[in-house]
Structure prediction request, 204 residues.
Amino acid sequence: MKNPLDSVKGTITAGVVLAVVLWFIVEAWIL
Amino acid sequence: MEASVFYELILRWIHFLAGITWIGLLYYFNFVQGPFMAEAAAAAKPEVTTKLLPRALWWFRWGAMITVAAGILIILNKISQNGTEVMGTSWGISISIGGILGLIMWYNVWFIIWPNQKVIIAANQKAVTEGKPVEGLGNRPRVAFLASRTNTMLSIPMLFFMAAASHNPWGLF
Prediction:
């Protein structure tokens, strides 16, 4: 599998996905 | 204005100024300089690495240092004013997540990117002086590149949680 960090598009997509995943974790289990 | 509120305002001002310097340069490296270097003529690359890069990296790493220092002082000020229980509020949880991501990024800057770039810059300077090709770098450029890209990725959730701490959207959805 290609490393998403090798492209700018993959890096930004990975960052947005990480933000959304963390948001849901906080919303569902922490707050 | 209460002294602690004014103190926090000044710290936030410093935090934003240094943070913009740091993350602005991070985006410049990833979105502008990286693609430029991939296309640049071989003769132009050592010029960039030995004259432009050291200047950009100085502002980059000290921007990171001041951002983190001011951020820690903001949290300590908040705790001194409201007690440790403030870290259990939505502000505390949000700022903790953003802060942890920021600390990982600060570590990457000072302990992975900068040590590797120092060697890369020195190797380029030596090559320019001796008129020979750059050699002996091993996987250093790749490691520095991946740490830089990791920071670009982490900056996206980091900024979300930093903003969410003070502009609280919890419970909105």
Remarks:
- Helices of chain B lie at 3-39, 45-82, 90-130, 140-166.
- Chain B touches chain A through 21 residues (CB under 8 Å).
